[in-house]
Structure formats: C-alpha cells, structure tokens
Amino acid sequence: MEVEAIRRQASALLARGLDAEALAVLEAAADRVAREAPASAATLLVDAVQIGLGVGGPSRAVSIAQRAVDLMAGTSGSEHVATVVRLGDALSWAGRYGEATATWRSASVDPGDGDPRLLAERANALIRLGDPGAHDGAYRALVAARAADERQTVLDALNLVTVAEAHAGRLLEARRAAEEALAIVDGEGTMDELDCIGLLAWIVALLGDERRCRELVDLAGRRHDEMRVTAPGGLARGLLALSKGMAADAVTDFEAKLVETRFGPVAAMTAYRPFAADLVEAYARAGRPEDARRVLASTLPVAIGSGQPRLAAPMWRALGIVNDDEPAFERALTEHAAWGNRFEEARTRLAFGELLRRQRRRADARDQLALAATAFEHVGSRIWRDRAMAELRLAGERTPAPGSPHVPGPETLTRQEGEILELVRAGLSNRAIAERLVLSVKTVEGHLTTIYGKLGVSSRTQMLALLAGLDRG
User: Fold this and answer.
1) What letters, b where the CB count within 10 A reaches 16 and e where it falls short, cover 110-142?
2) Rg (Cα) of the chain, in Å, rounded?
3) Closest by Cα among 329, 320, 238, 338 to 278
4) Is CATH 1.10.10.10 correct for 405-473?
5) Half-sphere exposure of 259 toward its Cβ, with a 13 Å CA cutoff?
6) pTM (2 decimals)?
7) DSSP states of 25-41 as a string?
8) What is the pLDDT of residue 366?
9) Nearest CA among 58, 57, 33 for reference residue 43
C-alpha cells in the first residue's frame, strides 16, 4: 500500500474518532516498509507522533519520534528535518525542554533552497526556539508553498504565520492568516479543520472578540459531535474568561486543557499556544495562591534558563501577580523590551498598574495603565483596553476618554461603589467583580442596589445606558 494511501486511511480513522486504530495503522505500516523504504516509514511515524501523545501520553510520543529520527540518520532534506522537529516537540511535551531546544536548534539551520516543506519545518523549529527569524521564516515558507501550489503546505504555512504573528503580538495579522487557513478547510469535517478552528479561536480570544470566539467554540463542538471525537479542553474559553475577570472559570478551562493535551506545566509554557502564565494568573485571581506557586516552581526556572524573552516575560509577570512583587514586574518589562510583543507587554503593565493602584501609588499606576491601554488599542484588543481604562479611572484618571464622566446622583458614591461601577462598565460579572475586589457576591449585589438608587435607575441595563449617554454627551 502506498504511503499516501496509508496516511489517508489514518486520517479517515481520525475523522471517526478512532485515534488508537489510526496510530496502529501508521505504526504497523512503518514496520512493514522500514527496511526497504526508511524515509517512507519515517514519514508515517511523523504523522503518528501527535496521535501517540493523545493515545499514550508524552513518553509514547517521544518513543515514536525517536524511532523516526533513527530511520533518517545520515540523510538530509525535508523528511529528515520533519523527524527532528517532531522529536523536539515530543521532548517538550514531556517537559524535557533543554533537550527539545537542542533538537530544534539542529533543525533550524537555513536549508539554502526553496523546498516549501523544508522551509516550513525550519520555520516550525525557529518558532519553537523563539528565534527572531521565525517571523520571516514562516512567510518564506508561505510564499514558496503558494508558488508550488501545494495545498497542504500552504495550509501548514498559514498556521505557522498565525503563530509567528501571535508570538510577535501582531494579533490582527495573526487573525487574517488564521481566517484564510480555516477558509481552505471549512466544512471538510477533518482534523485539519478542527486544528484551524482551534487556532483561530485562540487568536480571537486574545483579541477579546467574544462573539466570534463563542461561534468558533460552538462550531468545534459540532464538528467533534459529527466526528464522534471527545471535545478538547477550553484554551480559548479560558483566555476569554480571564480577559473578562472570571478567574474561576478560566482555571476550570485551563485545567481541562492540561488534561486533554496531557501537558505538564512546562509543556503548557512552551507550547505553540502557551498558557502556563495564564493558568498561574487565573489561580492567583481565583484565590488559589498555592496552586499558582506550584506551577511557578516548575516553570519559572525553565523560562529563565531558556534565554527566551517570550517564555520569561509572562512567567515573571505571573510571579508579580502571585506575590505582589514589584521587582518581578520590572524584570518582566526588561524581558518585554527584548521581545517586542506589545500585547503581552500591555498585559504586564496592566497587572503592574493594578498593584501600584492597590498600594495607593496612583500616579505611578496611571503611567503603567495608560501605556497598557494605548498598546491594547494599537493591537486591536478592545476587551483588554477596556479593562485598562477601568483601572485608569480607579487610579484617578479623569480625562474625557470613554467611561470618565461625572456620575450624577443624590449622593456621592463611596470609593468601593465607584470601583464596582467601573468594573461593571468594563463588562465584568458580579462574580468576577467579587473575585477582583475580594468580596462576596452578595456584597457586590448589595452595593449595586445602592448605586442604582443613587443614580435613579433600577437595573444594570438602565445604569449602563445612562453612563453611555453621558459618554456621548
């Protein structure tokens, strides 16, 4: 049976949710052809690595990838590079990031030719390494794939471009590439389609586009039902919940993602779509500091030792959030200066500004929060911009920006009532406000009832309509 026929058979099994059977088909076929056609066997095993992670966990994935590399020993070309990159991936999933880095580095050497598959694999390695050349490498692969009119390689390259742009903080550009990738496979009911849905959902969650994110999550759910595949964990849902201040929900979703991917904290930090720092932040904001510190204990040393600002900056921010640690925030900003991701830097400045406001250093807080709001606006993330603006107003900002009008009423709002009002304006639920201000939900509800009376309204909707009218006036 031809290699491509075997791969199609495995894909069909995956589409029916028969992952273990697909893995068995690929490994059995690799066994049959290994002696006469080692490159073909290695190609089949490369396909099997990701499946092996889901079926047998990281150690199984490492075993499969190592065998593929052994089959390609002494060779060169895209097939060889693909096996090396996949071994690096598997080592990373197993939490062996030092070994993974060395493996990816060996695959990142410029191939010196225009083979689109080889360029894509090199770009993959560069992204994993956090190399500044990853962005250009992904686009080189895309241009070569388009010129060769290789549909699968175009799709792969678009996904690489999406990730490279997201890692650079260029979320609108990432969204454009992800939308194009999904358009290629839309409606196919394949694993490629599910992967593209997940990638786009990640981007729109970072952007805070709640409507589009929920559409994609629902679409993914329908596709999983059709394919009779267990729905994955909620990375996009978790990011969206975190952006809205719903920390407990974010924890639930991120923990589900860990179970689904079989990732430990280190793998969650070094993945294409990293979320270890988000998990730490969610734990801290949900009142679970010991869980947050447990994750930090295993991830922060790896992040620092990696020499990669894209890994270190979010983890230093997470440490700052957990411990109210000003030097940690300063260290994170130093790493951000070397990284250049404005979105992630803005998240650090927002968290730092929150700490400074709580310490009543309101002028210092406004400096950080204003920079955060401007950066969120620049990258197109409105939900995070609104959070920064709400914090700015809590820190005493009184510019005529949206959300800063004088609030009328028969009495002056207390400080805590003002805080609750601003968080409602930022879109937070009562539960999220309670978590943010360390209050009970009933206390928040009681304050809102008082606020309604002072403003002469009887509901949240009426209050927001009143404030929106003041913004326009």
Assistant:
1) ebeeebbbbbbbbbbbbbbbbbebbbebbbbbb
2) 24
3) 238
4) yes
5) 11
6) 0.80
7) HHHHHHHHHTTT-HHHH
8) 92
9) 33
Block mean pLDDT (10 aa), the chain, length 473: 84 84 94 91 93 90 95 84 92 91 89 83 91 92 94 94 95 96 90 90 92 89 73 82 90 92 90 93 94 96 93 97 96 95 96 94 92 92 89 74 43 74 84 82 84 78 76 55
Within 8 A by CB and 6+ apart from 71, the residues are: 34, 38, 39, 41, 42, 45, 83
Lookup: tokens for 324: 């109210």
State the residue for tokens 């720092």: 277
Token couple for 301: 């040393």
pLDDT reported for residue 268: 92
Tokens 């109210």: give the residue. Answer: 324
Other CB atoms within 10 Å distance of the CB of residue 175: 21
d(CA 185, CA 171): 21
Model pLDDT, residue 400: 42
Choose the CATH number for 1-107 among 3.40.1390.10, 1.25.40.10, 3.30.70.1290, 1.20.1260.10. 1.25.40.10
Alpha-helix runs per DSSP H in 149-262: 151-167, 171-185, 191-207, 210-227, 235-243, 247-261
What pLDDT does residue 465 have?
79
- Contacts (Cβ under 8 Å, ≥6 apart) of 323: none
By the 8 A CB rule, do 84 and 107 touch? yes
User: Would you tell me how many other CB atoms lie within 10 Å of the CB of residue 331?
Assistant: 19
Q: Do residues 99 and 91 touch, judged by C-beta distance below 8 A?
A: yes
Q: Tell me what pLDDT residue 253 has.
A: 93
| Burial readout 394-407 (b: 16 or more C-beta within 10 A, e: otherwise) | bbebeeeeebbbeb
Which is the CATH superfamily of the domain at 112-232?
Tetratricopeptide repeat domain (1.25.40.10)
Measured CA to CA, the distance from residue 433 to residue 418 in angstroms comes to: 12
Which class for 362: exposed (0-12), middle (13-18), buried (19 or more C-beta within 10 A)?
Answer: middle
Q: At 43, is the secondary structure helix, strand, or coil?
A: helix
d(CA 162, CA 105): 21
Alpha helices in 244-341 (DSSP H): 247-261, 265-270, 276-285, 289-306, 309-323, 326-339
- 3-state DSSP assignment of residue 102: helix
pLDDT of residue 206: 93
- Residues 390, 403 contacting (CB under 8 angstroms): yes
